[in-house]
């Protein structure tokens, strides 16, 4: 079972990384219930005037949230608005730890408690 989980995780991660090459076209579409999709939760920077949530991307696999990459300011709100559930996530990844990529990390982790997540969330 553990090898199957590792294989599934690896497949999701590879799909995410490959999807990044096509991010502009993937972001323009809605996330479907089949296959892999990338949803942009935030694409702003640390500036307050850009009127966007900071960097964060959500990878969906067959209609379930699987990977969050970065958790910039405003991304926890966008995560909630997306309908995703912390209990479905396989991993939370960071490109780096500048504040515009990590500010909402505590809010996402706290929301796991409210969703009664039963398993560890790899970071």
Q: What report would you give on this structure?
A:
The chain is globular, with a radius of gyration of 14 Å. It has 123 residues and is of the alpha+beta class. The chain is built from five helices and four strands. The two termini are 21 Å apart. The chain has a four-stranded mixed β-sheet with strand order 1-2-3-4. Helix 3 links the parallel strand 3 and strand 4 (91-93). The longest helix is centred in the N-terminal third of the chain and has 19 residues, at 2-20.
Low-confidence stretches: 24-30
| Estimated share of beta-strand residues | 15-25%
Percentage of helical residues? 25-40%
Largest sheet: 4 strands, mixed
Radius of gyration (Å): 14 Å
Task: Provide the CATH topology.
Answer: Metallo-beta-lactamase, Chain A
Number of domains: 1
Number of helices: 5
CATH architecture descriptor text: 4-Layer Sandwich
Mean pLDDT: 85
Structural class: alpha+beta
Q: Layout of SSEs?
A:
Elements: H1 2-20, H2 23-27, E1 36-42, E2 56-61, E3 64-69, H3 75-82, E4 91-93, H4 99-102, H5 105-114
Parallel strand pairs: 3-4
Antiparallel strand pairs: 1-2, 2-3
Task: Sum up the structure in keywords.
123 residues, alpha+beta, Metallo-beta-lactamase, Chain A, four-stranded mixed β-sheet, 5 helices
In short:
The protein has helices spanning 2-20, 23-27, 75-82, 99-102, 105-114; strands at residues 36-42, 56-61, 64-69, 91-93. It has a 4-stranded mixed beta sheet with strand order 1-2-3-4. The protein has a single domain, classed as Metallo-beta-lactamase, Chain A (4-Layer Sandwich).
């Amino acid at each position: 079972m553990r090898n199957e989980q590792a294989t599934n995780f690896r497949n999701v991660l590879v799909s995410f990384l490959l999807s990044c090459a096509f991010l502009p076209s993937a972001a323009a579409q809605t996330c479907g219930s089949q296959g892999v999709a990338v949803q942009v939760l935030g694409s702003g920077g640390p500036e307050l005037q850009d009127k966007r949530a900071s960097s964060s991307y959500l990878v969906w696999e067959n209609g379930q949230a699987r990977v969050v990459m970065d958790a910039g300011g405003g991304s926890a709100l966008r995560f909630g608005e997306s309908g995703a559930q912390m209990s479905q996530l396989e991993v939370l990844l960071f490109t780096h730890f500048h504040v515009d990529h990590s500010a909402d990390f505590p809010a996402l982790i706290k929301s796991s408690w409210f969703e009664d997540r039963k398993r560890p969330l790899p970071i």
